[in-house]
Specification:
The chain is mostly helical. It has a domain at 157-259: Serine Threonine Protein Phosphatase 5, Tetratricopeptide repeat, CATH 1.25.40. It has 13 helices and 4 strands. The strands form 2 sheets. The chain has a two-stranded parallel sheet with strand order 1-4. It has a two-stranded antiparallel ribbon with strand order 2-3. Strand 2 and strand 3 form a beta hairpin. Helix 4 crosses helix 5 and helix 8 (143-155) packs antiparallel against helix 9. The radius of gyration is 21 Å and the shape is elongated. The two termini are 39 Å apart.
Length: 264
């Protein structure tokens, strides 16, 4: 296997950053008065007051991340993130939902995910699918509904949606939620996104091995899972015990079944 690999976990959520705000960053840097504090320039406040939600979002991210000159401030970041979301900025809605989800405020998080979805944010479709799969935020636990949301996300080429969809189709605890053949097609569609020199995350190889085992191709599953573990060892990567457990399962000619233990 020639593709490069990196370590990312299945449900990692990543902040979206505004990439065209170099001028805004420079303006903020001039507002630093002490190592651990800074104030927002009046010019930026005025832009927010005039309805510029992107500026409010940028201010929020600056508070969250801090810099070499000033410390981060989560509370202020969250305040500005809520402001940007309330002003209708889709990226802020997604980030706010992520923060709320981290606090297990699932109903409020789902509300913001749905609002972001209405504005065309493809990445949140995968999160909504997860809520349906596990029955979070008062939703009925329904894998088939979840799969429909995954498919919507896949239409926007959300890689995490392909991966998680294939994983559940291959390893779901409930038999009616498993569809090995479709899992194989889904993981194949995901792998087709990558070129030969692209970096492929660890978890995708792990998912692919599980899919191969689900269609009883245990020889290929064992070879891939063992290769994955060996490659992770080469770079001193921490390996989850479940990676070894899955390899043991494949050696016993048993597909991996993932127990649904998610918090509601």
């Amino acid at each position: 296997m020639s593709l490069k690999i990196i370590n990312k976990e299945v449900f990692i959520l990543k902040r979206n950053y505004v990439t065209n705000n170099i001028i805004l960053l420079a303006m903020l840097s001039f507002s630093v008065y002490a190592k651990d504090d800074f104030s927002i320039p009046p010019s930026l406040i005025k832009q927010v007051d005039n309805g510029n939600a992107e500026v409010a979002y940028f201010i929020a991210m600056t508070f969250f991340d801090g810099s070499e000159k000033f410390a981060s401030n989560y509370d202020k970041g969250l305040k500005w993130l809520k402001k940007a979301a309330q002003m209708g900025y889709a990226h802020a809605m997604e980030e706010l939902a992520i923060e709320l989800e981290g606090e297990s405020k699932y109903e409020e998080a789902l509300s913001w995910y749905m609002k972001a979805a209405d504005l065309g944010m493809g990445s949140v479709l995968e999160r909504i699918a997860i809520y349906h799969y596990y029955g979070r935020a008062g939703l009925e636990e329904n894998c088939l509904t979840a799969y429909k949301w995954f498919e919507k996300a896949e239409q926007k080429e959300v890689e995490l949606a392909y991966n998680n969809h294939a994983w559940f189709l291959a390893t779901a605890e409930q038999e009616q939620c498993r569809n090995p053949e479709k899992a194989l097609k889904t993981i194949s569609n995901l792998m087709a996104i990558y070129d030969a020199d692209d970096i492929v995350p660890w978890h995708i190889w792990d998912t692919k091995a599980a899919v191969l085992a689900s269609v009883s191709d245990f020889k290929s599953a064992i070879k891939l899972q063992q290769w994955l573990i060996d490659e992770m060892k080469k770079v001193n990567e921490d390996i989850k015990p479940s990676y070894f457990q899955r390899l043991e399962s494949y050696n016993k000619r048993k597909p991996w079944v993932e127990l649904n233990q998610s918090n509601k």
